[in-house]
Structures are given as C-alpha cells and as structure tokens.
Write a structure and sequence with these properties.
The complex is a heterodimer.
Chain A (H helix, E strand, L loop, with lengths): L2 H32 L6 H19 L2 H22 L9 H23 L15 E4 L3 E4 H23 L1 H11 L1 H6 L4 H24 L9 H15 L4 H27 L4 H26 L10
Antiparallel strand pairs in A: 1-2
Helix pairs in contact in A: 1-5, 1-6, 1-8, 1-9, 1-10, 2-3, 2-4, 2-8, 2-9, 3-8, 5-6, 9-10, 9-11, 10-11
Chain B lengths: L1 H17 L1 H7 L6 E7 L6 H18 L4 E7 L4 H13 L5 E3 L4 H13 L3 E4 L5 H4 L7 E3 L6 H12 L4 E7 L2 H13 L3 E8 L7 H10 L3 E4 L4 H13 L5 E4 L5 H7 L7 E4 L8 H14 L5 H17 L7 H10 L10 E2 L5 E13 L2 E14 L10
Parallel strand pairs in B: 1-2, 1-3, 3-4, 4-5, 6-7, 6-8, 8-9, 9-10
Antiparallel strand pairs in B: 10-12, 11-12, 12-13
Helix pairs in contact in B: 3-12, 3-13, 4-5, 7-8, 10-11, 13-14
The chains are: A mainly alpha, B alpha/beta.
Chain lengths: 306, 387
C-alpha cells in the first residue's frame, strides 16, 4: 500500500470521526446532564437532513440549508423535550428506551407522510465540489476537507462553551449534581431544554452535512445512532472530550480496518475469500474495540470515577 | 398504517365491484381470485414496494374484470412479519394466491411454506437462486428475473465495451455475492480489485481511494437503494473518471432524482425501460403517469406484468383447478411491457436484458435504451430444478 493511499484513508477516518462526534456529543451531553437514554437522536439527524434538502431545493443555497437544518433540529428537539422527554427524567431507563423508540417510529412515519417514500436530492454546492490536490500528491474531495474543518471547529467551540461560559458551568454542574444546582436557583427545566435542543441541533447539522454526500431518506439516522452509542461508551458516558477521542478512534478503526484487514487476509487466503472474510471481520472491529475498552476501563476512556 | 392500507385496498375493491355490472359479460366465465399481497410499504425500502403495488393495482384497474380481490399488507422488510402475514392470509383470509415480496431473504422465508400449502406464488421482484434451482416449485412463478440476470448482462456489456480491467464491488450478503459471481460469469477481462462492503454502508471514501489506486479501466457495482445513491454522489465528487456499470437497481426512477447529475451517462442493465417500443408498454407508461403523477420504475413494470399474467391465466382456467391454472400461467399469454416474455421450465423468465444509459429529459432524470446485452436470456440454475 502506498503512502498516498494510506494518508487518504487516514483523512477518511478522521472525517468519519468528526461527523460521529457531532452525533455523539449531543447524545453524551443529554445522558450526562439528564441521565436520559435518547434513542430518537438519530431521528433528529434525519430531521436536519430533510430540512436541509427541502430548503436547498427551494432556495438553492447550501448555507441556508445548513442553517435550516440547525434550526429545524433544534426546534424539533426543544418541542420533543417539552412534550415527551420531560416526563421521562424520573423514570427508569427501560421506560426512556421505550418512549424514545416510539419517537423514532413517529418521526419516521411523519417524515414519510410529509416528504414521501422516495429519497430526496441534496448535493454538494459547486464551490465545494470536486477534488483538490494536497501536499504529497493526495487527491482528496474538497467537501470532505470541509467536513473535517467544520467538525473540528465545532469541537473547539463546544470545548470553549463548556469550559468558559455560564451555560457551560451549569452543564458541568448539572452533570455533577442535579439536585444541588436546582437548589442553587438554576432553572433546571430550562437548562434541560437548552441542552437537549443543543444536542439536537448538532445532530441535525451532522445529518445535513453527511446527507449531502450520502442519501437523504427515511431511516437514515439509526445506523449512525448505533455508531454514536459505541463512541460514547468508548469515550465514557457524559464526557465531551471522551466523545471526541472515541469518535476519532471509531472513525479510524472502522476505515483503516476495512482497508487493511482484507489485505492481511489475502496473504494467506485466495482473493475472493479474503475480501469477504476481511470485510466481515472489519465490520466487527469497532465492537471488538468497545469490548476491549470496557474490559480495561469499565467506565470508558474518560468516564467518571464513580 | 395498516388500517390505511386496508382502506386503500377496500377502495380499490369498491372500484372493481362498482363496475361489476359492465364487466359481467366480458368476465362471465371467470371465477373469483383472492390475492394476498405482502410487500414493503414502510421503512427504508418502501419505494420499491409502493411501486410494485401501484403497478399491480393499475393493471387490475385497467383490466376491470371485477373478479380480483386484493388484500395488501406491509411486511416492513422484516422476514418474521412477512411470515406472520403469509400465515394470516392463507389461514384466515383464505387467499388463493400470494405475491408482492421485494427482498430475497423475505421470499425465502415465505415462498416455500406458501407453495407447500398449495398456494400459488407470483414473484414480482425477488429471484433468489435457491428458488430457481433445487428449491423450485410447481406453484412458484417469477415474473421479474432471477437475481443473477442483470449482473450477467453487465458482464456481457463490459466485454462488448472493451473493458479489460474492472474493479467490482457489492455488499457482503448473499445477493451481493450472487451479483459479483453473475458479473464474472460473462465478463472475460481481468479484475483490478474485488470488494465486499458492509450492507447498508453509506460512506465509500475508503473504497473510492482503493479504486483510484487500482489502475482499473471500469467500475462495476451492485449497491441497491440508498447505498447506490451515496456511492454515485461520492464517486462523482472524487474526481475518478472511469466508466461505471451497474444493474438497474441503483438507477431506477425512484432514486435517480436523488442522485442527480452524478448519475448522468452511467450505463446500467435492465429487463425493462419506459422507451421499449410496444403497445402494452405505451399504455402502461401513460396510464401510470396519469394515475399516480410520476414516471413508473422497473418495479412498477414488474407489478403490472405480474397482475396481467394472473389475469391472462384467469381468463383460461379456474384457480381451484390447480393443474389447469398452472398450465395457463406457464403459457404466459399476456402482453408484457418488456416485449417477448416466456417462462423457462423452472418458471423463471426467458427475456432480453437491455443496456440503458442515464439521461436527463427536461428536469427529470431517466434512462434510455442503448442496446441489448443478452437476448432471450435464461438463468443457469434451471438445470437443478426437478418439478
């Protein structure tokens, strides 16, 4: 394997990682602050993608489409939090899983009802289309570089917000001790709505950004949701830093494993069998990684010590 | 959802019975047939099931026999639900004939038990190799294709286009393996690479990097539904400039609009296209657009042909006389929208497979036929079929 091919695959792994981070950060915040398992997070990803596709078709502007994705997902998140999720905080995790699973079904059928059963069109705008040549002669799609930059910028912004702002202090305090910050006079239900809407907006943005190079269709969020859960389990539930490290680990493992394993298998098997067996094992790799992390650090890489 | 479907089926029925008076003379010798349609109407693959259903119901409406009752249920693309629905349709609805299943794994779960219980099954889509070969059954008819057919045609086309070094990829599941096997059965050149992707995979960055580095002169892929949309968009954006070939499943009318310009010029193989020049196809394409306000896909054409096959057999025999009805089905005496159509001894089609190219007509992306890949093509599994 040449250096160029390897470098390109590392970039691909990082790109997958930062997009997973956008999903996982919301999931981990909601779990960390409110103790809620939200299976419907993937639906918010879908809402973002559909809102972006709708606005892009109507206005032709990619930037407006991204803003619409953020706004629609945040609004959907806030509404869902106030109508449904709020009633679940005191319940046990099984009730939360059941209710948010029901939300997945409602969102999916609702989206089909509004947009129909056929996938929607959403494509890379002309100014981000096509490949660019990086140092070392790597041909890499400009849009994927854009994804990496946006993802890292949001990771940085999220870090600053949590470390430096008043809202960040409240979120950290909420993770540490819910009752105490309520007792100190913080409007806890408002804080919950904001955190939930923030997580939803990030998921919606990820849906729009990724939907642009994939397909915008009903049910697109659930496969990503599974990966996002793997990420937060590896990173440590509730930890933003853990979500970033976990997302990059999962992205790189998944991409490089899928490329390297069939080649390794091909050294002692025939080509057809090696690609088949190699890709089968590669698809298990992130779960093996998760199992290994849980074995060594049962609370994840950056999980609390409690 | 279910109640909506039953309502839709019921309204289709009232439409039939409402015209019973006028149709009574024409269909005087016809006996009633109750059809159970199990297809995918919700979830990711719903577009395919909806097209099959709409094509089927259009033919039923146009023929206006007044003797066909259709019960429609949604399998949600889940084999366990499909099996429950089949049991319910056979035992409590007492249907005479089943149809509608899109996916091969669901067909494998439903068809053998339905035919073993003495029901007819007409497949409007799935054609797993097991049901064409050793597992064939006298009451099972496939009106679409055997799964390998379009991939074989793609391999044959690659030869005629002069490709010598193909990079081929498909998802890592049985139909994906069949696909690459089918391509290699007719393709005589070398392989620059062979990849199995994960089923449901949406990001092909890693695969595209390998295609770029492989030195291939052409790319063959089988990635149905949303997987194909993602692949084509990313392929167009990667700057790789090799010709692409695929089976029609990634280029049907339902998903082309979502792919957009990225699909233009791509060559794909299909047993049907809207520009096949015959009267039946013209009627079908016009009536489908008038009824549903969109262009038909190959799935809709398969549903339409399935219903017309059924109607042709009903005109000749009573479904309760199974031997006579089976013989009538075997004759395939109906005007297929794809032109010549006959059943091989294993009850799978003998038909031409065409080469199509994706074009843009006004604002709509669609296909046009540019040649025939395989004439009077039949699957290779029939030899193992002992009825």
């Amino acid at each position: 394997m040449t250096f160029v091919l390897f470098a390109e695959q590392v970039l691909n792994g990082v790109q997958l990682g930062v997009m997973l981070f956008l999903m996982a950060s919301g999931l981990t915040l909601v779990f960390g602050v409110m103790g809620l398992i939200n299976l419907a997070h993937g639906s918010l990803y879908m809402v973002g993608a559909f809102a972006a596709a709708g606005v892009a078709a109507a206005t032709g502007s990619f930037l407006l489409a991204l803003c619409a994705a953020l706004a629609a997902a945040a609004a959907a998140g806030a509404i869902v939090e106030m109508l449904v999720i709020r009633r679940l905080y005191a319940r046990d995790h099984l009730d939360q899983v059941l209710a948010t699973f029901a939300l997945i079904l409602i969102f999916s059928e609702g989206t089909r009802w509004v947009f129909g059963s056929f996938p929607l069109y959403l494509n890379v705008p002309a100014y981000l289309a096509g490949p660019v040549t990086l140092p070392g002669g790597i041909q890499y799609p400009l849009y994927r570089l854009f994804l990496i930059v946006v993802g890292l910028a949001i990771a940085g912004g999220l870090y600053l917000m949590i470390a430096r702002t008043r809202l960040g202090i409240q979120i950290r305090a909420g993770e540490a001790d819910r009752e105490m910050i309520a007792a100190l006079g913080v409007d806890i239900s408002r804080l919950y709505t904001i955190v939930f809407a923030l997580g939803a907006a990030l998921a919606g943005l990820a849906g729009a950004l990724v939907g642009t190079i994939q397909s915008v269709q009903v049910g697109m969020g659930e496969p990503v949701l599974i990966l996002a859960f793997v990420v937060i389990v590896i990173g440590g539930i509730g930890s933003i830093k853990g979500a970033l490290v976990g997302a990059l680990l999962v992205g790189l493992t998944d991409t490089l494993g899928g490329v390297l394993l069939p080649r390794i298998f091909a050294t002692f098997m025939d080509n057809s069998g090696a690609t088949s067996a190699g890709s089968a094992v590669a698809s298990m790799l992130i779960y093996l990684l998760m199992a290994a992390v849980l074995f060594l650090r049962p609370r994840g890489l950056f999980g609390g010590a409690a | 959802m279910k109640s909506k479907l039953i309502a839709a089926a019921a309204s289709a029925l009232t439409l039939c019975s409402g015209t019973l008076g006028t149709a009574a003379l024409a269909g005087a010798h016809m006996s009633d047939v109750k059809v159970g349609m199990i297809t995918t109407l919700s979830g990711g693959g719903a577009g395919l099931g909806i097209d099959v259903r709409d094509g089927f119901m259009l033919a039923v409406k146009l023929a206006d026999t007044g003797h066909i009752e259709v019960v429609i249920e949604d399998d949600q693309r889940k084999p366990d639900i499909a099996v429950q629905l089949a049991d319910k349709m056979i035992q409590s609805e007492k249907v005479d004939l089943l149809t509608g299943i899109i996916w091969s794994n669901l067909a494998m779960a439903v068809v053998p038990s339905a035919t073993a219980q003495g029901k007819f099954y007409l497949s409007p889509n799935a054609g797993p190799s097991a049901l064409a070969g050793k597992g064939c059954h006298k009451n099972y008819f496939n009106v679409a294709w055997q799964n390998d057919n379009m991939h074989e045609a793609a391999g044959a086309y690659a030869n005629s286009a002069g490709y010598k070094n193909s990079f081929i990829l498909a998802p890592n599941y049985p139909a994906g393996h069949d696909s690459l096997t089918g391509y290699k059965r007719h393709y005589t050149g070398a392989l620059a690479g062979e990849l199995f992707t994960q089923l449901g995979q949406k990001d092909y960055a890693a695969e595209l990097a390998q295609i770029r580095a492989s030195g291939a002169d052409s790319v063959f892929f089988f990635l149905p539904g949303g997987m194909g949309i993602s692949f084509l968009k990313q392929y167009a954006d990667s700057g790789i400039d090799l010709p692409v070939i695929g089976p029609a499943f990634s280029f049907d009318q339902g998903i082309l609009q979502a792919v957009g310009d990225a699909a233009l010029g791509v060559v794909n193989t299909s047993q049907w296209n809207k520009d096949i020049d015959n009267a039946a196809n013209k009627t079908f394409v016009e009536a489908f657009q008038a009824e549903y306000g969109r262009l038909p896909s190959l799935y809709a054409s398969q549903g339409y042909d399935t219903a017309n096959l059924l109607i042709s057999a009903m005109a000749k025999a009573d479904i309760h006389d199974q031997d006579a009805f089976r013989a009538a089905l075997e004759e395939a005496d109906f005007e297929s929208v794809r032109g010549d159509f006959a059943f091989a001894p294993n009850h799978h089609p003998i038909q031409d497979i065409y080469v199509r190219e994706v074009i843009k007509e006004g604002d709509v992306y669609t296909n046009k036929i540019i040649g025939v890949a395989l004439e009077d093509h039949q699957d290779v599994y029939g030899a193992d079929c002992k009825m």
